[in-house]
Specification:
about 725 residues; alpha/beta; six-stranded mixed beta sheet; globular
């Protein structure tokens, strides 16, 4: 009934709109252009969408919203769109762990809590649409946007996508799924490069996160910059109409990636002019062009008016846009939202999320947790006194309360007990800086060496500013050809190790790095994906043993860049036939001098506690299998443990992965506590893409593996 009322209101407005007013609804532009035009006394375009790359005051934003409502013939409000991967990109917003770090928590409920808080803050700051979540599948660590994803696994990403959409949209803010589709598998790991995926692979791995989030009611979707099988997604009727709307039943709006419509002309060369690009996009089903009217510019308006472009295509897009605005309640006015942004509760949530995202990779010498008699700490490295929160962070305007790890360490240990030295920048070192770092390490009981990426870039393709001090190595448009750390950082690690002081290596990164050749230079290794504004506080509590590490890798770490791809759910023939793994001392096959195995696999993560699994059982019903097991914490720590269930099937007419994540849950265990947990897995969830490219039940002999336990059953 409510939808019927919205439909009637939409049709009433649509029937009264001029072509110019309709075209204006299809455009997203920077709100500062509206401000500038008004300040210059010009009559501005009153577009349907605005973004805000530099924040303006709440009062000014309200004034602009009211101006647009008062001055459009049908009093249509605009939607303010914001970047929102790990918090709304606004100086006031709380900065949560980057998406890849949230994936490492394996905690769906925590993801939902974070998303809900982000939604509240976004709404309070005037935003009603956010460009998140990124539901790409990260299978190539060379790609700079790995940090924006939740990891390499389809099921993990799907579960987090659902929680993000629910959390955001529960606050009258539209969530935008991106980047549809297969954007995350670019040739050579280079951003915007074509992916080489067949339809089955697309449906098996890259489509399910979009499908699951659409079922949860995701209101908007962003096509990817890339092409699929020779056709740019922004011009693909097959992908945007047949697959997205007809098959997946998506009823929301589609918004172009920034500059993607004009890229049909400038990059992909499928359109000779911007007008032709606009026609290709509208015919494919792109409702909104961001972030300037190029394809949907003045020539496009003329083409609509003279009938070159079918007005029915425009009406279709505008109807979806108006429907979205009604669903968000924008026609009801702009009530004051008194939500406290960056509240103590939000900051505490950022801290809790950071804690659960930190992954302990190595601790063979029991260097962690640090002993109570450790008094002097050397804090060294390019990430030690540098804010690193990940891409799409408003570095240049952020609050002064966001402080570097050095400041947090000094407050915790005291300035007299902390010896700081940069040692090297992200990619350059000098002998003077190395010597200062060596001196700090020699005079300390332990050296905490913070190495990794620099992702300090404000913005994405086509806009933004370099706000970093050295080479940017991660984020949108910053891809790498090598998965070793830059040589400057390797040299620094080797020099500090040579001092004889115990070394705790902290990798503060947005991607995984191959550390096979250097890991023996550290007594313990921590992978800390960009952990947000409370990441340093969380790191200290992990180092000191106040909290037990519980993060697990959401992405496999390869032995080298030559081992890419390195994801865990590969097909049976994908990792070598001969199984005669070689080494430099004993050459073999699969590879001659190596093996295709990962350095650290998906789901890997150590703990300070002894956690064991036992007593796995299964109970089968007509439509589901229930798996139960016991999890025991044999330590004095309070711990959290992500329990991961993997499914494998023996035979199928279509080749299947060697195993696939099918369920997971993060549980809490007190000292020496044992819990029994159970998972009910409906048979409808065990599916594959059949010969006709349709989802069918995956019948046969299945094995569920949890840790070192397994149980088999038949569907």
């Amino acid at each position: 009934m409510i939808q019927n009322k919205i439909n009637k209101k939409v049709l009433d407005i649509l029937s009264n709109m001029s072509i110019d007013e309709k075209i204006d609804q299809l455009i997203l532009c920077d709100i500062h252009e509206l401000l500038n035009e008004l300040d210059e006394g010009k009559k501005p375009h009153l577009y349907g969408f605005f973004c805000m790359t530099d924040a303006i005051s709440d009062a000014k934003l309200r004034e602009l919203k009211q101006y647009v409502r008062d001055n459009t013939p049908n009093h249509i409000p605009f939607i303010l769109v914001g970047e929102c991967l790990h918090g709304i990109m606004h100086p006031e917003g709380t900065i949560f762990p980057q998406s890849i770090a949230m994936g490492a928590t394996f905690n769906k409920e925590l993801m939902g809590e974070v998303a809900s808080t982000i939604g509240k803050e976004a709404h309070a700051l005037g935003y009603t649409q956010v460009l998140a979540p990124d539901v790409d599948i990260a299978r190539d660590a060379r790609w700079g946007r790995v940090e924006e994803t939740y990891g390499e696994d389809t099921y993990l990403v799907s579960q987090f996508a659902q929680k993000y959409v629910e959390g955001i949209q529960g606050n009258a803010v539209a969530s935008t799924l991106k980047h549809y589709i297969a954007y995350c598998a670019p040739e050579g790991g280079l951003n915007l490069a074509p992916p080489h995926v067949g339809e089955r692979e697309m449906r098996e791995y890259f489509l399910p996160p979009f499908e699951s989030a659409i079922k949860k009611g995701a209101m908007t979707l962003m096509p990817s910059y890339t092409e699929v099988d020779g056709v740019p997604v922004h011009a693909s009727k097959r992908l945007l109409r047949e697959l997205l709307r007809d098959e997946l039943k998506f009823e929301g709006t589609t918004i172009s990636d920034y500059g993607a419509v004009n890229m049909l002309n400038t990059l992909h060369k499928t359109a000779r002019t911007y007008l032709e690009a606009g026609i290709q996009a509208i015919e494919a089903g792109v409702d909104i062009e961001a972030a300037a009217p190029c394809g949907y510019g003045e020539d496009f308006r003329d083409a609509v008016k003279n009938g070159t472009v079918d007005i029915a295509l425009i009406d279709e897009a505008v109807a979806r846009i108006l429907t979205l605005k009604f669903k968000l309640g924008l026609f009801d006015g702009d009530p004051v939202d008194d939500t406290t942004v960056h509240s103590p509760e939000a900051i505490d949530l950022a801290y809790r999320a950071a804690l659960e995202s930190i992954v302990l990779l190595e601790n063979s010498k029991n260097a962690l947790p640090l002993c109570a008699d450790v008094k002097k700490i050397a804090l060294i490295g390019p990430s030690a006194d540098n804010l690193q929160f990940g891409d799409y962070t408003d570095y240049k305007n952020m609050k002064s309360t966001r402080v570097t790890p050095r400041a947090v360490f000094e407050e915790y240990f005291g300035k007299d007990n902390l010896l700081y030295a940069m040692g090297s920048s992200t990619s350059v070192c000098s002998d003077e800086d190395l010597c200062l770092a060596e001196e700090a390490a020699k005079n300390a009981d332990v050296a905490v060496l913070m190495l990794g990426d620099n992702s300090k870039f404000f913005g994405g393709v086509g806009w933004g500013t370099n706000v970093g001090d050295t080479s940017i190595t991660c984020g949108e448009g910053f891809d790498v050809s090598d998965l070793s750390l830059p040589q400057a950082q390797i040299t620094l690690l080797e020099r500090i190790h040579a001092t004889g002081t115990p070394v705790i290596l902290v990798l503060n990164t947005g991607r995984v790095y191959s550390i096979k050749e250097i890991r023996d230079n550290a007594d313990a290794i921590i992978q800390m994906f960009y952990a947000g504004e409370k990441g340093a506080d969380a790191l200290i509590d992990i180092l000191m043993g106040k909290v037990c590490p519980s993060g697990k890798l959401p992405m496999s770490i390869p032995q080298s860049v030559g081992h890419v791809p390195c994801f865990y759910n590969y097909k049976p023939a994908a990792r070598g036939f001969y199984k005669e793994f070689g080494s430099p001392d004993k050459p073999g096959r699969d590879y001659v001098f190596s093996s295709p195995e990962p350095l650290y696999p998906f789901g890997y993560g150590l703990s300070y506690a002894d956690i064991s699994y036992s007593d796995i059982k299964s109970q089968k019903s007509d439509d589901a299998i229930t798996i139960s097991l016991k999890v025991k914490n044999s330590s004095d720590y309070n711990v959290k443990e992500a329990v991961l269930l993997f499914d494998s099937v023996e035979y199928c007419i279509i080749t299947q992965p060697v195993k696939s994540l099918c369920a997971f849950e993060k549980i809490a265990l007190g000292p020496n506590e044992e819990k029994e947990i159970s998972f009910t897995l409906p048979f409808d969830g065990f599916t594959y893409v059949d010969e006709n490219m349709k989802r069918s039940r995956l019948k046969g002999d299945h094995t569920i593996t949890v840790g070192n336990l397994s149980v088999s059953f038949e569907i």
